[in-house]
Amino acid sequence: MEERLGDHVRELREARGWTKHTLAREAGVNTSEIGRLEAGGGPSWRVLEGVAKAFSLSVSDLTATVPRVPDQDPILTQQVEGIIRAVHEDQMSAQEAIRILERLGFLERRPQKVGQE
Hints:
434 Repressor (Amino-terminal Domain), elongated, 2 domains, mainly alpha, 117 residues
């Protein structure tokens, strides 16, 4: 079943009995970043990695229930656009970008067209 990343993070956090502050501390990020993520905001790679680590998950596992079709997942679109921009502006190598996309699980999956199952 597909769900929003923020909802999934909230469920994982609440299942552990953690507050947003506790998750933020465990993830090494600000409480406001956890609030933004749970509200549906697009997280940075740093926040995704921190949250995944706090839950002892890979980023790919953390985001496994999130839709992968960019038209359905604006967070994924933002992340990929940011990675492309970083490569274009020589802030990141293409090889590093590929590694990040692999860690996101994006390269493992073949996005389906909207309406396909």
